[in-house]
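ARCHIVE CARD
Drawer: 12
Card no.: 0347
Subject: one protein chain, sequence and derived structure
Cross-reference: see card 0346
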Amino acid sequence: MSSEASQNGDEKPQKPLHDSTLVDLYVGEENNHYPLHEKLLCHHSPFFASIFYNKENKSSRTKEYGFPELEDQTFALFVGWLYARAIRAPEEERDIGPLLDLYFLATKLQIAALETDIVETVRAFYHHNETYPGLRRVQYVYANTDEDNVMREMMVGSVARYLTLADSIPEHWANALKKNGQLSVDIIRSIQEWHLEARQVPDARDASVDRGRNTFKGAVGFSHVEEGSSMENVKEENEEEDEEEDESHVNGNGVA
């Protein structure tokens, strides 16, 4: 549309998303109040659109909504993204936890753009710091996501690389894989997606080549499980958050 047509009134200029009615959102047990712009919320979130607008796309009488189960910090991060379209990059591993909570909220609110931004932020943190998601991070994601989830796939793909490059399986990972078949299957699927050429993979049927039963620190065979850290150049990030804090967030769908 030309500027002349716009000047002649052929097309009405769109009002900014901030220039709209405010709705009242209440978060946490203390009902912390967040007055936010209705059109901005509904533009990004089909979840909010279904609440604040009816089927005829007219404004609903409902102008408030509550999240009593939500942490105030998580919603504050959401508001920051909503108005600035930016996520502060984590400086250390403990900053990943709040971002995961924000990701779960984004999934509930059906905001795909926010989900993508968080996945890329978490991915960049682990890559730039040459670390990998710890077991409890993966458990937390499994407890709060369904299959075919992008964050879950990223986490599992990272773990698949970590375990493949390691000299042996750390004991805590071995225990988790024995208890949770879905996690083990997902790791195998992730490795299959690498589409390795046959010549890149040792052939256990060929007696003329190394069949994988390497000696490691005096132990021979696939069953060897390392009790400590096994990688010299690649390390798994040590979790700094309190175990009880993680367990309080994990529901019955988590990785055992």
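Annotation on reverse: The chain has a mean pLDDT of 81. The longest strand covers residues 22-27.
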